[in-house]
Design goal:
By secondary structure, this protein is an all-alpha fold. Helices cover about 70% and strands about 0% of the residues. It is found in: Mitochondrion inner membrane. InterPro entries: MCP_dom_sf (IPR023395), MCP_transmembrane (IPR018108).
């Protein structure tokens, strides 16, 4: 949905239409393409996110009680583009490496970092705010953690959608250039921003907004629920008075 000049047959007007067309024309498993790359990058990314979150929360609160894998993102988005020529994660990796070189995997690295900083900042602040509203005692409350995580993820995703569109453009441009030989290469965040505006206007920055929010809500809800569960579990396990 974030492709600014999609190939024929991939023009999606809604999440429902996108899912329907993918399943009808490319098979039931088509929406799951790229999941291997995403899973491989999710583990270390989330471990780093929550480790930094806990550390910085303690540092900034003044009390002792108080991701990013660019290669995975590139491969995932290449596999998810309509009518992708790649058969799987390894096929995508080797073909991109051989035809575009190792730099292709880091083409959107600056954009990814630029997006992750505000996304995670908004995400964590929103979660803390929602916890104050739904769980002021800060007890282990799965329902409060799920609701807070979902709302925080949705809000952060919506705010940072323009940067996500830029990242998608940078990660997938070579594949789309094969069918659009007259299209120039796009290098860097500034060029991506201006290209999006020239082709799609202001609305171009928010392509795929609904899909991005729908993806982030369950993802962040599950992440926070699992994180809070294990935090609660290990705290009580290590508490000699418990």
């Amino acid at each position: 949905m974030q492709s600014l000049q999609p190939v024929p047959g991939s023009q999606y007007r809604s999440v429902h239409e996108a899912l329907y067309k993918m399943v009808r024309h490319e098979g039931v498993l088509r929406p799951l393409k790229g999941i291997n790359a995403m899973v491989a990058g999710a583990g270390p990314a989330h471990a780093l996110y929550f480790s930094c979150y806990e550390k910085m929360k303690r540092v900034l609160s003044g009390t002792e009680h108080g991701h990013n894998n660019p290669l995975a993102h590139v491969i995932k988005q290449r596999l998810q583009v309509y009518n992708t020529p790649y058969k799987g994660v390894l096929d995508c990796f080797w073909r991109v490496l051989n035809t575009e070189g190792p730099r292709a995997f880091f083409r959107s690295y600056t954009t990814q970092m630029t997006m992750n900083i505000p996304f995670q900042s908004i995400h964590f602040m929103s979660y803390e705010f929602m916890q104050n509203q739904t769980n002021p005692e800060r007890l282990f409350n799965p329902k409060a953690h799920i609701v807070s995580g979902a709302i925080a993820g949705a809000f952060a995703a919506a705010i940072t959608t323009p940067l996500d569109v830029c990242k998608t453009l940078l990660n997938t441009q070579e594949q789309r250039t094969l069918t659009m030989a007259n299209r120039p290469n796009i290098n860097g965040l500034v060029t991506a921003f201006t290209t999006i505006y020239r082709i799609g206007g202001v609305s171009g920055y928010f392509r795929g907004l609904q899909a991005r929010v729908m993806y982030q809500m369950p993802a962040t809800a599950i992440s926070w629920a699992v994180y809070e569960f294990f935090k609660h579990f290990f705290q009580h396990k290590n508490d000699p008075n418990d």
